[in-house]
Amino acid sequence: MDQPAPLFENPEKSYKMSAPVELSERDSATKDFFKESNGEIFAGAHVLVDLWGVNHLDDIEYIEQALREAVDACNATLLHIHLHHFGDGCGVSGVAVLAESHISVHTWPERGFAAFDIFMCGACEPELALPVLQKLFEPERMTSDLQKRGVTR
Q: How many CA atoms lie within 13 A of 51 on its CB side?
């Protein structure tokens, strides 16, 4: 693919991570892993990624390796990967469970389509998975959207 991966369809939804937020009503020794950006405090960043025109969507080992590389790129902590293959020529669904949340994947090889769902709290940056997914899957088209989950103000 010749074009760079879009970070987000709407650049106003982009954010720059700061340190984990310490809430005043809690014991001062307790850290909270909410994020803060432009005066907003929120639980985590949720990136939805659609890849079109993609290969390897029925290859469970390839998808597992892609998840591992995406987790590493985001500086997240992998706890467990569980993937399910639906049979010859069929898709794969699963999740990488992280200490900071998850990356899930659902593939439709018959349509050349994959949907990734990347949700992370704390200092992890889920958007860093995008170049990894682009490099490994070489999509003809890639879209992404960032949602801030649990906005407090």
A: 28
Length of the chain: 153
Catalytic positions: 101, 106, 121
CB atoms within 10 A of CB 113: 18
Question: What whole-number distance in Å separates Cα of residue 141 and Cα of residue 13?
Answer: 20
Signed CA dihedral, 27, 31, 37, 41: sign only? negative
Closest CA to 20 of 6, 12, 30, 7: 30
Rg of the chain in Å (alpha carbons) = 16
What CATH superfamily is the domain 44-146? S-adenosylmethionine decarboxylase (3.60.90.10)
pLDDT in tens, 44-93: 999 999 999 999 999 999 999 999 999 999 999 999 999 999 999 899 99
Nearest alpha-carbon partner for 48 in 151, 109, 108, 119: 119
Domain ranges of the chain: 44-146
Q: What is the pTM of this model?
A: 0.80
Of 125, 104, 100, 133, which is closest to residue 116 (Cα–Cα)? Answer: 104
